Amino acid sequence: MTATKKIDLQKNKKLLTMDIIFAILMLGALVFAIWKCRYGFGGNDEAFYLTIPHRLNLGDALIKDEWHLSQLSGFLILPFVKLYTLITGGTTGIMLASRFAYIVVHLIVSVVIYIRLRRFGYGAVISSVLFFVYTPYDIMALSYNTMGLDLVALSGVLMATADYTKKASVITAGLCFAGAVLCNPYMAAAYIIFALCVIVHLVLKKLGKTKNIFAGDYFSIRTFLWFTLGAGILAVLFLVFLFIRTSISDIKTNLPYMMADPEHPSLPLSLKLNYYFKTMWECTALFKYSLIAYGVVLVILIADFKRKNHKVIHLALSCAVTVFAYCTMFEKLVDYNYNYIMFPALFLGITSYILCDKKPRELLIFNFFLGIIYSFAMCFSSNQYFYVESMAISASNISSFVFTGILIKEICSADYSDSKIALVSYQSGKENIEKSVNRRQLCSAVALISVAAAVMLQCGMQIWTKANHVFWELPTSYLTTTLSGGPAAGIVTNQANALTYQNILSDISQGYDDKKGENILFLTEKTWTYLAAEDMNYGTFSAWISGENDTSVSRLKQFYSVNPQKEPKYIYIPKESKWNLANLQKDALEQGYNLKETTWGYMLEKR
Q: Model's pTM, two decimal places?
C-alpha cells in the first residue's frame, strides 16, 4: 500500500468515526426534541404563527386581509397547513403537528449543515448538534423566527461551501435566502451588501489587487447572478400568489394601516441602532462586565504582533471571558433570557478566526457575517431587541465553533522548536534534577481544557434550559394535563390553561360548528380560537390584536372601513377578557348584534 493510500485510508477512518459520533449525538438530540415538543401551550404566539397560513388557506389575501407585519412568512407555512387540513379534514391537533414538522425541518437543516462542514473536523459536529438543540424562544413550531434562523444558517453555509464554478449550491442558497427575507424583509439589506461587494471585487480585479477578502470567486458576477436566480424563483412564486388574490390598489389602501402597528412604531434608524447596543449592555446585571473584559482581551490580541506564538494564551483568556458571560446568565435561565445564552460563543468565534493560520474566509463572510446582519435585521423589525439579537447570533455560532475547531487542530499539530518546558529544577545530593513537560502537550492540554469548559457549559445550559423552560408556562414538571380536541389536541399544559381552553373550545364547538364560510371575530388575545373555528372566515385585521384595549377596537374599525366585506356576522368574547365588556356590548348592540350569554363568554350575532 502506497503512502498516499494509507493517508487516504486514515482520513476516511477519521471521517467515519466523526460521522458516527455526530449520528449518535444527533439521535440523542432528536429523541430529546420529540420528548419536549408536547409540553407547553405556547401562549398566544404559537397559534398565531398558524393563523396567517390558515386564513390564506381559506382564501384570504396578504396585506389586504391581514395587517400584521410578520405575515409574509405565512406563505412558507401555507403548504404545511394546506396538506394537514387536506389529510385530516380540519385543524384538530394542528399545533402539535406543526411542532413535529418543525423538528423534521430543523433536523434536515442541521444535517445538511454538518455534511457541508464536515471537512473542517469536529467543530462541524459541535456546531450542528448545538444548532439543532437550540430553538428560538423555545417555541418548537414553524414560525418566522424558527424558519428565518434555519434559512439564514442554511443559505450562509451553502454559499460558504459552494463550488463557485457550479451553480446548484449557489442557486439553492439564493432560494433559502429569499425565504429568509420573507421571514424578515430587513434581510434584503444583505443582498444589497452582497451586490456592493461584487462591485468592489470587479474594481479591485481591474486594478490587479487580487490578494484581499474581496478577491475570491464568491464575489464574481457569475456567482451573484446564480444566487439572484435562486432568490428570484421564490420571489416570482410569492408575487404571483400575492397578486392572484389582491391588487396594487388594495395594497396601496391597506399598507399604511398595516405599517401603523402600535406594537411596532416607526423609529429612527439611529434610535434602533442605539437600542441594539444599549439592550445588549443592559441584558443582565453583570453581562456588561463580560463585554468589557472581552473588549480588553480583543485589544490585547490585536496589539500583539507575535500573537501567532501566543495562541493558547489568547484562546484561554477568551474562553475564560466566555465562561464568565455564561455565568452572568444563570440567575433566570428559564425565564426571559433563554435566548441570551446563544450570544457568548461569538467571543470564541472572533478570537479563533483572528488566530487561525488557514482562515475559512467564505465561512466568515457568508455565515458569520450573515448571522450578524440577521441580528441587526431582527432588532430593526422587533420590539424585543437583545432577546432577538442573541437568537439571530446562533447562526453565527455555527462558524464560531468551526473556527475554534480549526484553531485547536492547529495548536495541537504545531511544530514547537523548544519542545521541552522546565517545570521545576532542584538538587538532590550531587545531581541536578529537572522535571519537564512537552510543550506541544502542554499547549494542547490548555487549549482543549479551555475550549471544552466553554463548549460543555454552552451545551449544558442549552440542554438544561430546554428540558425545563416552557414558553409562557411553568417548567415541564408542573405540566400534567393533556388537552383533547381542537387545534391544541395532544399538548400537555397546566390545569388552569387546560380548563380555560376546554371551556372556550366547548363554546366554539356548540355555537359555530354549522357556520361554515361566515365571518367571525374573536375579541380575545387567544389566537388559537380562530384555528378552532376551522372553516369560518376571519373577520379581523389579524388574529393578533395587540391587546384587549381601545387601540385594538380603533384598528378594527379602520379595518372594516376599508374592507367592509370582512365585517363579522359573529363575535365571541370570553368572560375572562380584559375588555370593558359593558362598553363593548353596548357598541355591538348599537351596530345591530343580538347578544347571547354562555357560561364562559358572550356570543353576538348580527341581525
A: 0.93
* Contact assessment for residue 486 and residue 532, using Cβ atoms and an 8 Å cutoff: yes
Long-range contacts of 53-59 (CB under 8 A, 24+ apart): 53/77, 53/78, 53/80, 53/81, 53/82, 54/81, 54/91, 54/530, 54/531, 55/530, 55/537, 55/538, 55/543, 56/81, 57/81, 57/82, 57/85, 58/535, 58/537, 58/538, 59/245, 59/537
Q: Return all residues near 325 (Cβ < 8 A) that are at least 6 apart.
A: 287, 290, 294, 343, 344, 347
420's enclosing H/E stretch is strand 420-428
Q: Average pLDDT of each block of 10 consecutive residues along the chain (607 residues)?
A: 65 88 97 96 91 97 95 97 96 97 98 96 96 94 96 98 93 98 97 95 82 81 96 97 96 93 81 90 91 96 90 93 92 74 94 94 96 95 90 96 94 66 48 53 83 94 91 90 96 95 95 93 96 95 90 93 95 89 82 90 91
Residue count (the chain): 607
Cα 459 from Cα 266, distance rounded (Å): 38
CB atoms within 10 A of CB 603: 19
Angstrom distance (rounded) from CA 287 to CA 387: 14
Assign 16 to helix, strand or coil.
Answer: helix
* Cell numbers standing for residue 114: 454538518
Residue 276 to residue 67: CA distance in whole angstroms: 26
Helix (H, G, I), strand (E, B) or coil at 486: coil
Asked whether 133 and 37 are in contact (CB, 8 A), the reply is no
Ramachandran sector of residue 537 (left: φ over 0; alpha: ψ -120 to 50; beta: rest): beta
Map residue 354 onto helix, strand or coil: helix
